[in-house]
Amino acid sequence: MTLSLGVDTGGTYTDAVLIRDERDVIATAKALTTRSDLAIGVGNAIRAVLDQAGVAPGDIGLASLSTTLATNALVEGQGGRVALVYIGFGEGDLDKHGLREALKGDPALVISGGHSHTGAEAAPLDLGALQSFLVSNKGISGFAVAGLFATRNPEHELTVARAITEATGAPVTCSHQLSAKLNGPKRAVTAVLNARLIGMIDRLIGRAQDTLVEIGIDAPMMVVRGDGALMSAEQARERPIETILSGPAASIVGARWLTGVENALVSDIGGTTTDVALIRDGRPKIDPAGAQVGGFRTMVEAVAMRTYGLGGDSQVHVITEGLQGGVHLGPRRVLPLSLIAAEAGEVVHAALDAQLRSASTGEYDARFARRVLGVPAEGIGPRETVLLDRLGTRVLPLSDLLRTRMEQGALTRLVDRGIVQVSGLTPSDASHVLGRLDAWDAEAAQKGMELFARKRTGNGERLAKDAETLATMIIDQLTEQTAQTLLETAFAEEDADFDLPPEQLARHVLTRRGLSGHRGLLALDVALNLPVVGLGASAASYYPAVGARLRCDTILPEHGGVANAIGAVVGRVTLRRAGSVTAPAEGRYRVHLVDGPQDFGDPEQAMTLLETVLRGEAEQAARAAGAEDIRILVNRDIRQVPVEGREVFIEAEVTVEASGRPRIAAE
Question: Where do the Hydantoinase A/oxoprolinase domain residues begin and end (predicted)?
Answer without folding.
Answer: 187-574
